[in-house]
Amino acid sequence: MAEERLTTRTQFPASAESQKPRLKKAQEFPILEKQNWLIHLHYIRKDYEACKAVIKEQLQETQGLCEYAIYVQALIFRLEGNIQESLELFQTCAVLSPQCADNLKQVARSLFLLGKHKAAIEVYNEAAKLNQTDWEICHNLGVCYIYLKQFKKAQEQLHNALHLNRHDLTYIMLGKIHLLEGDLDKAIEIYKKAVEFSPENTELLTTLGLLYLQLGIYQKAFEHLGNALTYDPTNYKAILAAGSMMQTHGDFDVALTKYRVVACAVPESPPLWNNIGMCFFGKKKYVAAISCLKRANYLAPFDWKILYNLGLVHLTMQQYASAFHFLSAAINFQPKMGELYMLLAVALTNLEDPENAKRAYSEAVRLDKCNPLVNLNYAVLLYNQGEKQGALAQYQEMEKKVHLLQDSSSLEFDAEMVDMAQKLGAALQVGEALVWTKPVKDTKSKHRTTSTSKAASLQQPLGSNQALGQAMSSAAAYGKLPSGAGGTSHLTKPPSLPLEPQPTVEAHPNEASAQIREK
């Protein structure tokens, strides 16, 4: 009965759709970029471990053909300091996508970080062929040429970068080239244009203020440093520069107040401790000055200006052996500065080594063509040694320098120097009428505020010029007349350690703190 019911069921015809043949599913191929978004997300969050895990998985799926994963892996290697590995990966990206200028730019940057500047220039030139409107390529080419000391080509490339697109960093590098060439006027013009373009950039304002300060144009220096502090009241570089200006004018207590603020931001700054030390020196707190300068020397053992200041302070305290030690070290780092040899000669004179003192004075006279103090002190030594003809020659040379300085500027010479020069001239004319004695070691040194010459102010770094002038005075004061005339003639620029944002590129294009913009 049940079987009959099953056989008598109505059979419905199949639908037309079910009769159509089913299409086969297309074969799935791996999508090379399917996890790029996740790689990018981890990278910008700086979650590098998770980023590397995703990159590893992506490269396994794509058999190493995912360009973006390789690119980000190379960036991470560079951040970790593995420059050579990053270079190899960027070269792989360049092979995968040879028409991409960005890959070549990264290859060139890795070469630059490895110090291969010529190879970096070649790669940048190849990238420039692919993209002729990229200002970064021109900028980075200019930086590479700076390191090769090809300043003309560097200027050309940086000007090209500014023509394509104006950026603060390009102005900064162009200004540093002029500073490397010793052309402060052109450097100031460049930084003025940069400030016009970016008036709120505190680094540009501070650098321009430092340049004016270095030239002795205090009004403009104070104006630009004040603007920098207006936009960023915690800018320690500007505060340090303002403090050095106050220190230059003898406001040691106010300068120390400024330095206290800076010490909270950068407690291990060598220029800071140098300037604090020279503030204490200006206040005649010599032990505190030496302690601060020793700390600065510990933080920057190869900075000749700190060694210079230590030598001056030890000369003032009549610790001639220590002064000789620090001045000799400073000469090793700055062998072409005449004042260092002069102070070394003062120390040698008091160490009863007149022959080496004469050699040091001779070198100082050869190197320094504008400072009459060198010739005056040398003449004092020669006269003390009985060499009147040599003393007369140095005295006449000193007179020539004084006349040149008087003609070029309305300079008021230090009264002590004038008095010493007059007594020396009288002694040389009268001959045996006056009797000179050799330097007395227990002589009290006199401290006076210096009047620096225009030529000197062109080179004087930032810092405690007045305090250093006092040290220079005391350093030159060890050849004394019985009549009480001090040999403290000081018409010199007493250099002190510049601030960290020093615009001059001495040993350090900032010491060239050249920067290459990274994509």
TrEMBL record:
Which of UniProt's keywords are assigned here?
Cell membrane, Cell projection, Cilium, Cilium biogenesis/degradation, Cytoplasm, Cytoskeleton, Flagellum, Membrane, Protein transport, Repeat, TPR repeat, Transport
State the Gene3D superfamilies in the record. Tetratricopeptide repeat domain
Q: Where in the cell is it found?
A: Cell projection, Cilium membrane; Cell projection, Cilium, Flagellum; Cytoplasm, Cytoskeleton, Microtubule organizing center, Centrosome, Centriolar satellite
Q: Where is the composition biased (Polar residues)?
A: 8-18
The annotated region (Disordered) lies at 1-21, 441-461, 478-519
Q: Which GO terms describe its biological process?
A: cilium assembly; microtubule cytoskeleton organization; protein localization to cilium; protein transport; sensory perception
- The main location is membrane
Q: InterPro entries, from UniProt?
A: TPR-like_helical_dom_sf, TPR_rpt
Alphabetical list of PROSITE patterns matching this protein: TPR (PS50005), TPR_REGION (PS50293)
Assigned GO CC terms: BBSome; centriolar satellite; ciliary basal body; ciliary membrane; ciliary transition zone; motile cilium; non-motile cilium
TPR repeat segments: 168-201, 202-235, 304-337
Q: Does the keyword Endoplasmic reticulum apply?
A: no
Q: What domain of life?
A: Eukaryota
**Similarity comment: family membership:** Belongs to the BBS4 family.
**PANTHER family from the entry?**
BARDET-BIEDL SYNDROME 4 PROTEIN (PTHR44186:SF1), PTHR44186
Task: List the protein's name.
Answer: BBSome complex member BBS4
